[in-house]
Write a structure and sequence with these properties.
Elements: E1 2-3, H1 12-18, E2 58-62, H2 69-75, H3 77-87, E3 90-93, H4 99-107, E4 113-116, H5 121-128, E5 130-137, E6 147-152, E7 168-170, H6 176-189, E8 199-201, H7 205-214, E9 219-223, H8 224-232, E10 241-246, E11 254-258, H9 263-275, H10 282-286, E12 287-288, E13 292-295, H11 298-301, H12 303-311, H13 318-322
Parallel strand pairs: 1-12, 2-3, 2-4, 7-8
Antiparallel strand pairs: 4-11, 5-11, 5-13, 6-9, 6-10
Length: about 325
């Protein structure tokens, strides 16, 4: 089962770090040249030409490629059936193998609705015209996950500075909790990635965690939501590892639709998300602590993520995405 943590109203460590490089109050969009943002909400506007709006007979839906996508096709089936009922459309689950492939699929028009993980969400917004509108949460409206540093239970790494000179796994360059947040936060905690330790990219959170368990890495920063899910599936024994440090919560996967769908279809998609009941479904069993989808905006809920990425010099370009 999947555990979600509460979303903190502030991320004190991040704000303290970002104070010297805070974004201007009037933040402007970083959209690809094919998109516009006339209303200043930082996401792509719908086409003004009605002939460019899309109303496909079959909607294609993808979930972020955190673990084996085949498992999630079955888990998402109750929601897909609900989405079909509300929209009156056939819905196809698209198993993506990487964040880059998922963004490219929406950019090319082959993907209509998707769950994008935290770090790649700004790439999806700026390169693919994705419009985030929902996130999983609890009845109290809270949502989020934590960045955690794991090491072996018997490791001599007791505090963050102890990682100096060790074998540390990050996930991929564009991952928020797996790379960008550590690079932004760790210097204030006593280590500078690529300076105090050499970064090894594992490719994913689960590979980082399994590498720690196997002793391939001395420690790794990972997303709490992924390692919780792995533990409950029996992929590793929690007794074999130990948490060195954890952050305040970050937003989780964003759920977005393509900017160029018809307004009526977007409304139906939102209706399907916000009326879906998790209880008693495979999705509800998988994502424990979650009871519904909660409305969000990219401009508000992803501001701290944009701050972290700005601090890391991230640019929302095809080249930046390819670096993943």
């Amino acid at each position: 089962m999947h555990k979600q943590t509460a979303y903190g109203t502030t991320l004190l460590a991040v704000i303290a770090f970002a104070a010297g490089a805070a974004m201007a109050q009037d933040e402007t969009a970083a959209l690809d040249s094919q998109y516009t943002d006339a209303d200043g909400d930082l996401v792509a506007d719908a086409p003004t030409d009605p002939s460019l709006l899309k109303d496909p007979d079959t909607l294609v839906f993808a979930y972020t490629p955190v673990e084996d996508p085949a498992i999630y096709e079955d888990i998402w089936n109750p929601f897909i059936e609900h989405l079909e009922e509300v929209t009156g459309k056939d819905v196809q689950f698209f198993a993506v193998q990487s964040n880059s492939a998922e963004v490219e699929a929406m950019r090319s028009g082959r993907l209509h609705i998707a769950g994008f993980s935290t770090g790649p969400t700004p790439f999806a917004v700026n390169l693919a015209g994705a419009v985030p509108f929902a996130i999983m949460g609890g009845d109290d409206g809270q949502f989020g996950y934590k960045l955690q540093i794991y090491t072996q239970a018997d490791s001599d790494i007791k505090e963050v500075p102890d990682m100096a000179g060790k074998r540390i796994a990050h996930t991929s360059p564009t991952s928020n909790s797996g790379n960008l947040a550590p690079r932004a936060l760790f210097p204030d905690l006593g280590v500078v990635p690529d300076q105090d330790y050499e970064v090894s990219y594992s490719g994913s959170h689960d590979q980082s965690m399994l590498g720690v368990v196997a002793g391939d890495y001395d420690a790794a920063p990972v997303a709490s939501e992924v390692v919780d899910r792995m533990a409950e599936r029996g992929l590793y024994d929690p007794a074999d590892v130990r948490i060195v440090w954890e952050s305040d919560p970050f937003p989780t996967t964003s759920y977005a639709y393509a900017h160029d769908l018809t307004p009526e279809l977007k409304e139906k998609i939102e209706e399907a998300f916000f009326t879906f009941e998790f209880a008693g479904t495979a999705l509800g069993d998988e994502f424990t602590g979650v009871s519904k989808f909660i409305p969000i905006t990219y401009k508000d809920q992803w501001k701290v993520i944009r701050q972290i990425q700005k601090a890391n010099g991230v640019e929302y370009t095809p080249e930046g995405l390819a670096a993943e």
